[in-house]
Design a protein that fits this description.
- By secondary structure, this protein is mainly beta.
- The protein folds into two domains: 12-145, Immunoglobulin-like (Sandwich); 156-278, Glucose Permease (Domain IIA) (Distorted Sandwich), CATH 2.70.70.10.
- The protein contains one helix and 23 strands.
- It has one helix at 269-278, and strands spanning 12-15, 27-28, 39-44, 48-50, 58-64, 69-76, 83-91, 96-101, 104-105, 108-109, 114-123, 128-130, 141-145, 156-157, 170-173, 179-181, 186-194, 198-205, 211-217, 228-229, 234-237, 248-254, 265-266.
- The strands form five sheets. Strands 14, 15, 17, 18, 19, 20, 22 and 23 form an eight-stranded antiparallel sheet that branches. Strands 4, 6, 7, 11, 12 and 13 form a six-stranded mixed sheet that branches.
- The longest helix is centred in the C-terminal third of the chain and has 10 residues, at 269-278.
- The radius of gyration is 23 Å and the shape is elongated.
- It starts with 11 loop residues before the first strand and ends with a helix.
Length: 279
């Protein structure tokens, strides 16, 4: 490809009714439990949390006990046990509670790493049950990722940053018509057509002053200027519009303050290959 122009919500949400979880999905707690303490069952709906995705990572738990129980749910760093978020609720026997975390603490996006949900249930007499032991790093664990790979389906890498004249991104070849998903959510800065870029769009990333640009889409982008886009949302399909040879996505990362706002294109291949491994 040759281009002359390169082209909030709460952190914890408690749902009173079951969402995507049932008693049958849950495993009994393996952590310490006092004699006569509540029975606790838990499950997590995914081992991955993609920041700003419309698909929520959910932790569900159920407490079995004849009397009301105080449940303390937390998001922790396994191993150290450092608590990032905590929520407390009085729950009734056999109710299913669901908690969702978005990867944020206040207005700060947390680092890419493993985290875990933990719950401690305590009855009115002080008898307690822990969902996991202190040295259990796997139960109800998940990894937080800030981005995901945008091309869905078989693909291979083509020209990289600096190839030829003015090549400011990375080419990823795939069949025309393959899904293209937003590598990270944000707001559409520009969606349109250019003679070299073909059908393309630029997304101003949520939680970052960087921009991602997607070029040579098969058709006009499925979003418009100003639209809010979520990580993993369908934004178009692989094409070869504009000055392109072969069906591929030309992908660019622009440093802060962004695309043609004083930023500059940076080499995106290492990032794409890293996202490719876990997406």
């Amino acid at each position: 490809m040759r281009l002359a122009l390169t082209a909030g919500c709460a952190s914890l949400v408690v749902l009173a009714l079951p969402v995507g979880a049932s008693a049958a999905d849950m495993a009994r707690a393996t952590g310490p439990s006092d004699t006569g303490g509540p029975r606790v069952y838990t499950t997590t709906n995914s081992p991955k949390l993609f920041f700003d995705s419309s698909r929520k990572l959910q932790f569900s738990y159920r407490v079995v006990h004849p009397r009301p129980v105080t449940a303390k749910v937390s998001v922790v760093k396994p191993g150290s046990g450092e608590v990032l978020k905590r929520w407390t609720e009085t729950v009734r026997n056999d109710d299913v509670q669901t908690v969702s975390w978005n990867g944020m603490v206040g207005d700060k996006l947390q680092a890419e790493r493993k985290y875990a949900f933990r719950v401690v249930a305590r009855d009115v007499n002080g008898a307690s049950t822990y969902s996991a032991s202190a040295n259990d790093t796997e139960r109800d664990s998940f990894k937080l990722w800030h981005q995901r790979f945008p091309v869905r389906g078989k693909h291979q890498y083509g020209d990289g940053f600096g190839a030829g004249r003015g090549h400011q991104g990375t080419d990823v070849f795939a069949n025309c018509g393959n899904r293209l998903e937003a590598a990270r959510g944000g707001r559409v800065q520009y969606a349109g057509y250019h003679g070299d870029a073909g059908n393309y769009l630029v997304i101003d990333l949520k939680g970052s002053r960087k921009d991602f640009a997607y070029m040579h889409l098969l058709q006009r982008p499925r979003v418009q200027d100003g639209d809010r886009v979520r990580t993993g949302q369908l934004i178009g399909k692989v094409g070869e519009t504009g000055n392109a040879s072969g069906c591929h996505l030309h992908f660019e990362i622009w440093s802060r303050p962004g695309w043609y706002e004083g930023g500059s294109a940076t080499d995106s291949e290492d990032d794409l290959r890293r996202w490719d491994k876990y997406s």
